[in-house]
Amino acid sequence: MPAVESSERSFDVEADEMHLVCFDVGSACVAFDVAHVREVVRSRPTAPLPGAPDPIEGVIELRDALVPVLDLGPVLAEASVDASDSRSRIAIVEWQGLVAGLRVSAASDVLCVRAADVEAPPALVVRAGSEAVRSVLRRKEGPPVLVLSLAQILSRLAPGLDDAPGDGHDDPGAAAPGAAR
């Protein structure tokens, strides 16, 4: 089977699998490549950072390190995540050496899927400027899973991050298999 080239990853559409960590954010089901998710911790209060750009809500201390926390709700045009909800979590993620916490409504699943089952987002989504959604996983049961680009989300805080050379890990959301960019 032919390999399909994307800007950050090459897929053999018959053989490659993707491992995704899924989260609920408001009414959306979203996912990131498991290679970029260090851990998922229970939600906790943050210490506010005066003057920090949106969507940073503050920092938490985790294993003797300060980790900035972003509320993923407003990033995805959803309501802010209720940090006091017992199901809410903070996903500790890393992209090109930048570590951040993403506040989510709940951790929902870890999926191993065929790369061929992941598609490019609808053209209207791309044209509307929703660059955070890089691909979509259709499921027989349940709503589609929006595979997000961690690089796009974090580049709002560190411009140029998404253009920087990789750290050896690929962002599977960079382009869907079979999708032309």
Can you tell me about this structure?
By secondary structure, the protein is mostly beta strands. It has one domain (16-159): CheA-289, Domain 4 (OB fold (Dihydrolipoamide Acetyltransferase, E2P)), CATH 2.40.50.180. It contains three helices and 13 strands, in the order E-E-E-E-E-E-E-H-E-E-E-E-H-E-E-H. The protein has helices at 72-75, 123-127, 150-155; strands spanning 3-5, 10-12, 17-25, 28-33, 37-42, 56-62, 65-71, 89-95, 98-104, 106-114, 118-119, 133-137, 145-148. It has a six-stranded mixed β-sheet. Strands 5-8-9-7-6 form a five-stranded mixed β-sheet. Strands 1-2 form a two-stranded antiparallel ribbon. It is globular, with a radius of gyration of 16 Å.
Concise structural overview:
The chain has helices at residues 72-75, 123-127, 150-155; strands at residues 3-5, 10-12, 17-25, 28-33, 37-42, 56-62, 65-71, 89-95, 98-104, 106-114, 118-119, 133-137, 145-148. With 181 residues, the protein is mainly beta.
Short key terms for the protein model shown above:
single chain, 181 residues, mainly beta, OB fold (Dihydrolipoamide Acetyltransferase, E2P), six-stranded mixed beta sheet, five-stranded mixed beta sheet, 41% strand, disordered N terminus
The number of domains: 1
Which bin fits the share of residues in helices?
under 10%
Strands in their spatial order, largest beta sheet? 10-3-4-13-12-11
Can you tell me the CATH superfamily?
A: CheA-289, Domain 4
Q: What does the overall shape look like? A: globular
Secondary-structure-based class equals: mainly beta
CATH C-level = Mainly Beta
Described by strand count, sense and barrel closure, the largest sheet is:
6 strands, mixed
The CATH topology is what?
Answer: OB fold (Dihydrolipoamide Acetyltransferase, E2P)
